[in-house]
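Our consortium's second objective concerns turning raw sequence data into structural hypotheses that experimental partners can test. To show how far this objective has progressed, the report includes one record in full. It was chosen at random from the queue rather than selected for favorable results. The single chain below, 571 residues long, was entered without modification.
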Amino acid sequence: MKLLRACLFLCLLLGNLSGGWATPVVLQAHPQGLSLAETGQLLWLADDSGTLTLDQVLEPANAVRFKTVPTTQRHGDSAQTYWFKVVLEQRSEPFADWVLATQTTALKDVRFYGPFDAEGQALAPPVHTGLSRPFSSRPLGSERYLMRLHLPGPGTYTVYVRMFAETTPLVGLSVWNTAEYLQWRQHKRLFDGICYGILLALLVYNLALAGIFRDPTYGYYIGQCAFALLTLASFNGHAAHYLWGQWPWWQERGNVVLPSLWLVFGTLFARSFLNTRQVPWLDRLVLAVGVLSGFTALLGLLGLFGTAQTLNEIIASVGAVLAVVAGVVIMRRGFTPARWYLGGQALLFVTVLLVVLGNWSVIHSPFILANGLQIGVAAEMVVFAIALGSRISGMRTSQIELRLHAAHLAEAAATDPLTGLANRSGLAQGAARVLDDGAEHALMLLDLDRFKPVNDVHGHDAGDAVLRAVATRLQAHVRAGDIVARLGGDEFVILLAQPLSREQLATLAGRLAAAVRQPVEFQGQALTIGVSTGIACSPQDGRTLSELIRCADRAMYQAKQTRSGHAFHTD
């Protein structure tokens, strides 16, 4: 770990003196997130071998190879591994909650490292996710891949991201305030849900018609609706979330196989609905598109994702043009229903073309890129979708605000207002989680000595200052998973999440006592107190919180009587 910190510090130093430097991204609220590639503040490094580790990336020879991603660069090369370096600056807030997110779900392997502070200390464990990993590996249950950043205070922080995609990936990253990201995600899910509902309605309606008329055209349309729905769900990450999140093999293939099958049924529907058989040359072209789409689906199943993705984009573009040509040709031959095909089905292919152009950076429209397919599918009901979406969006926003308010109240109810520690309720909630694993744990009950004279002589404000100082010192000497609580008055409890030996517990009790004995400055006076600590261990002293507190209380009184500072509970 010390070597990693040293490498990171040297990397930052060399980066600031060479091509690996980037202006830090100042963290501030952006309702739609801040796209780092568009700001020119995103650095990347192509890993041609795909084998570089974080330690190797931090070596000076590689650190200086980081270059700024051009603002016009939206894609990397297929089957290529990229490392990204993001430097973030938090200026004012004492504690902030952010997320760093990818802008696509079509990534086979994504790894986040950091955030590293100015000394090279990693503030969180790495995040390893992607299509090749189960959906449960994605933080916050997010369809996109992200890392949640809990930044403790003002300063500069660095995050490294490793991405690999077998298709041509979007290279962007965006940074969000966590609350705004969750709000945006709710709006996105709402919009997607409306589009899914329209597709399901069309699917059910045409199933009924297929049962009545026994016309294969309806069967092809049903297949087209079904695979359009699954394709959208796969692109948006909802299929991985709700359908096959524990099946990474299909998560990777679904992104290319499902669009191919959508195109297969789309061409079959066009061929049947327009009856292109009456124009042999046109019929052969339409049939060729369908056959090529089926072949592309097979390539996807075999794992040739890059080739399959390229063919899908070409077929979708050519198919959009061919659909319009077929509709015009057949309409001119007197088949008037062809105009409905041109007004409806062709619109869907046009939006596919727009999305493809967005993927190829021919046009720049994040909204079309994210929602183009859904817009095409829902075009016939756009007014209804907007009206309903506005109403439901307001309801969803109110629900989120209520949930956040309820969560705030619940947190306040579990927190001691004076010290900011957990109170009895908060301790009980945390203990239920810690003690549930049945492993060995220890509980320390601390009672302050000579605290009453402080209150009597110097007043309650002085006593409050002492309690707050004690709370801060106790928190500074325990680990992140441990629970520090104030039971009331001058009694504190520490529930240790990880097992410690008797000798380690005694050492910890001594350190805590030394920290508490340090004078507390109050209005120019040094206030000094002591502490007596009782220690109880599970399971021998009990398995429930109340049993452990009762045993620790007995041990604490023994420590007071013997003036030993701390004592272990004994039967």
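The partners drew two points from this record. The first strand starts at residue 25 and ends at 26. Residues 178-213 form the longest helix (36 residues). Both points have been shared with the crystallography group to help prioritize constructs.
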